[in-house]
Every structure is written in C-alpha cells, then in structure tokens.
Amino acid sequence: MTTPLWCLLIATFLPFAWVFAGHACRYRQFGGIDNDHPRLQQAQLTGVGARALAAQQNAWEALAMFTPAVLIAHLHGATAGHAATASMLFIAARIAHGCLYLANLSTLRSLSWMVGAGAVIWLFAVAV
Question: Which stretches does DSSP call E strand in 29-101?
C-alpha cells in the first residue's frame, strides 16, 4: 500500500480520536454518557467538550475532501514523492487542527485547516 493510501486510512480513523475526547468530556460534564440520546447530550456540551465535537465533525468533513484527492492522485499515477509528502502534510495538519481545536487556539487552528486544504489541492495538482 502506498503512503497516500496509508494516510487515507489514518484520516479515516482520525475523527474517532476526537470522539474519545468528547466521550471523556461528556462523562465529566454530565456524569455519564447518554447512549439512548447521544446527539441531544452532545448538543448540550460546553467548553472543551463542544470543541471536541466540532473537531470530530470537521475531521469527517475534511475526510470528504481528502479521499477523492488521494484516489485521483493514485489513479492518475501522480509522482509518488509529491503525493506522499502532500498526504503526510495533510495528516500532520489535521492532527494539529484537532489539538488546536481542543486547546481553543482558533487562529492557529484556522491556519492548520488551510495547510490541510492546501495539501488536498496539491494532491489534485500532482494528479495532472
């Protein structure tokens, strides 16, 4: 499996890191996790818990951009080195994005989002 495909696998499971952070916050804020109505409970989260939920949602959204970029680069025979570098940059930016979300560092978080989006554009560009 190529590096971009490994990165796609990592990106697929990355939202779950923020799910686990959100679970810990739900337990701390509410004294437990309401598995019967999890979305209602999540909607009541505040502070770091709300940010963990937002990080999770944003990670799913970013995956929707990254997946076709990796697949198109792979199918069109993009230069392996460039595709690998862009994919690893995306993963680093997305890990930073989630951590910065939890830390409430919005300007740096936005910067990391832009780096990740740039990596996606780079993947499309190397596919040409």
Answer: none
